[in-house]
């Protein structure tokens, strides 16, 4: 047994040395902590909070350094200047999608979020075109969000001001907005299939943010072991069945001259390119793209709102000022609209501060360089994974004084006007910036204001005793469980 262990260690050293030499043969990676054979730097990284570990390493190695997740080198970008220089100034080169094994196992490189190269460009361009056709950024989608927000108000009234967990109800709005774009219909909040679909997305986001998945992504061979990655795989299989069922319904009623929703647009394009063997418009790409849109468009907005309400419970003086602004600008007899936002600087600042403070995706999804690139004094080989530490931007203490404090003043000038910041990278930046950013911004503003227009938020404990510490801070930041009462006003 001892001999076997020695052989494994020697073999691992040879593999690591080979990888090391290969990286230096093609380029000179930035310096970083010395990796151990096979496991790399994983012992120096806190899998419960990768971003915190990166900040500690940045103090020793600067804004650009290399860490090894297992045997895979990853170049880390820390701080606004380094991230801007890569994602914005050299956006095309840094527009590749880096390795994320647990999701790659699911999507197989299809869809829009985890694809690369020409496939990514075609599917993203097509998806943005269809989203615009479906009203993205226009009054039509705003009307849809307002309608859904009013459905939320009715559902919250049915809680009769009793303690409730807001997770599911807050997720209904963005999920139904996406459903109307993809399926042309919304679901009743009591629909069992809808409830199950929501449950899967919630479970997936929480699971992919857990320490186990950070280990899985570093060591994909762990898939042979029992673990929470199997929950994600099981959920995806069930979600895929649901999506395929909807696609089949659309195929049976398709009118190529009158597309109703995203699925119809995609099926029409598939038909037009059915003789093109190189076409990216395939059933695999359709299913993966729908899954991407639901995953990115539902749970992220829902979690942001859930965390946002917890912060407002913790800071009742802030929610009172938002409600005062709503009463002054909108009143109680009409719905809040996006035109109101320019006259509601404090509310706008609160929405931005919620996103900054919760730091929803601390390191975003990994990027990759699409060609060999000289970056600062280093040569980074094509295909190298790039990790962007968004926390270091959102918590920059020069741009946001006292960043550990939840303070809407971070987005207000001395006169109380809303103040934009280039450091607000809650949706990442550059070519891979969230395609649904405009929709998410609209949803967050309209949902929050609609809730506060109709309800007072009542915590079950003294505000000073509310703990806002996340339960996970991996891929995503997951708020602790809590309940509250929605008191009609």
Automatic annotation (TrEMBL):
InterPro entries, per the entry: Cyt_P450, Cyt_P450_CS, Cyt_P450_E_grp-I, Cyt_P450_E_grp-I_CYP2D-like, Cyt_P450_sf, Cytochrome_P450_fam2
Subcellular location(s) of the protein: Endoplasmic reticulum membrane; Microsome membrane
Annotated Gene Ontology cellular component terms: cytoplasm; endoplasmic reticulum membrane
Protein origin, superkingdom: Eukaryota
Binding locations of heme: 434
Principal location listed in the UniProt entry: endoplasmic reticulum
Any Pfam family matching the protein: p450
First-level EC class: oxidoreductase
Protein keywords: Endoplasmic reticulum, Heme, Iron, Membrane, Metal-binding, Microsome, Monooxygenase, Oxidoreductase, Signal
Signal peptide as annotated in the record: 1-25
Tagged with keyword ATP-binding: no
Cofactor (UniProt): heme
Membrane topology value: Peripheral membrane protein
GO molecular function: heme binding; iron ion binding; oxidoreductase activity, acting on paired donors, with incorporation or reduction of molecular oxygen, reduced flavin or flavoprotein as one donor, and incorporation of one atom of oxygen
EC number(s) stated in the UniProt entry for this protein: 1.14.14.-
Biological process (GO), any one: terpenoid metabolic process
Entry's family note: Belongs to the cytochrome P450 family.
Xref: PANTHER family: CYTOCHROME P450 2C70 (PTHR24300:SF200), CYTOCHROME P450 508A4-RELATED (PTHR24300)
Functional description taken from the UniProt entry: Cytochromes P450 are a group of heme-thiolate monooxygenases. In liver microsomes, this enzyme is involved in an NADPH-dependent electron transport pathway. It oxidizes a variety of structurally unrelated compounds, including steroids, fatty acids, and xenobiotics.
Protein name as annotated: Cytochrome P450
């Amino acid at each position: 047994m001892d001999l076997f262990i020695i052989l494994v260690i020697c073999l691992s050293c040879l593999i690591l040395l080979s990888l090391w030499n290969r990286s230096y043969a093609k380029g000179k990676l930035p310096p970083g902590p010395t990796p151990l054979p096979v496991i790399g730097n994983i012992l120096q990284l806190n899998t419960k909070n990768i971003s915190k570990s990166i900040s500690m390493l940045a103090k020793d190695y600067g804004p650009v350094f290399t860490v090894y997740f297992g045997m895979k080198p990853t170049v880390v970008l820390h701080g606004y200047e380094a991230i801007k220089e890569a994602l914005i100034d050299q956006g095309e080169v840094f527009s590749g999608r880096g390795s994320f094994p647990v999701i790659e196992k699911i999507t197989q490189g299809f869809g829009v979020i985890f694809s690369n190269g020409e496939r990514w460009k075609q599917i993203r361009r097509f998806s943005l075109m269809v989203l615009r056709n479906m009203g993205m950024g226009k009054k039509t989608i705003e009307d849809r969000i307002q309608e859904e927000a009013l459905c939320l108000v009715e559902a919250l009234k049915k809680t009769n001001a009793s303690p409730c967990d807001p997770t599911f109800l807050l997720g209904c709005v963005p999920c139904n907005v996406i459903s109307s774009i993809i399926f042309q219909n919304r679901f009743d909040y009591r629909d069992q299939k809808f409830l199950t679909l929501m449950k899967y997305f919630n479970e997936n986001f929480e699971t992919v943010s857990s320490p186990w998945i950070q280990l899985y992504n570093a060591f994909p061979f762990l898939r042979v072991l029992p673990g929470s990655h199997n929950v994600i795989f099981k959920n995806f299989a069930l979600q895929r069945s649901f999506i395929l069922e909807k696609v089949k319904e659309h195929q049976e009623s398709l009118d190529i001259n009158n597309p109703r929703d995203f699925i119809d647009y995609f099926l029409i394009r598939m038909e037009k390119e059915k003789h093109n063997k190189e076409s990216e418009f395939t059933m695999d790409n359709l299913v993966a793209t729908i899954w991407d849109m639901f995953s990115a468009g539902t749970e992220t907005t829902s979690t942001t709102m859930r965390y946002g309400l917890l912060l407002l419970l913790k800071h009742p003086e802030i929610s009172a000022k938002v409600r005062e602004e709503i009463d002054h600008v909108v009143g109680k007899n009409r719905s809040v609209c996006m035109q109101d936002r320019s006259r509601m600087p404090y509310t706008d600042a609160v929405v931005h501060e919620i996103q900054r403070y919760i730091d929803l995706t601390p390191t975003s999804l990994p990027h990759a360089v699409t060609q060999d690139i000289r970056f600062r004094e280093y040569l980074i080989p094509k295909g190298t994974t790039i990790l962007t530490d968004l926390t270091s931007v959102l918590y920059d203490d020069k741009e946001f004084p006292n960043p550990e404090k939840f303070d809407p003043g971070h987005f207000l000038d001395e006169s109380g006007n809303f103040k934009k910041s280039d450091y607000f990278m809650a949706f990442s930046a550059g070519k891979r910036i969230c395609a649904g950013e405009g929709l998410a911004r609209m949803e967050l503003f309209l949902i929050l204001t609609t809730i506060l227009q109709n309800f007072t938020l009542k915590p079950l404990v003294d505000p000073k005793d509310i703990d806002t510490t996340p339960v996970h801070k991996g891929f995503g930041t997951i708020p602790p469980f809590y309940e509250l009462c929605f008191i009609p006003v």
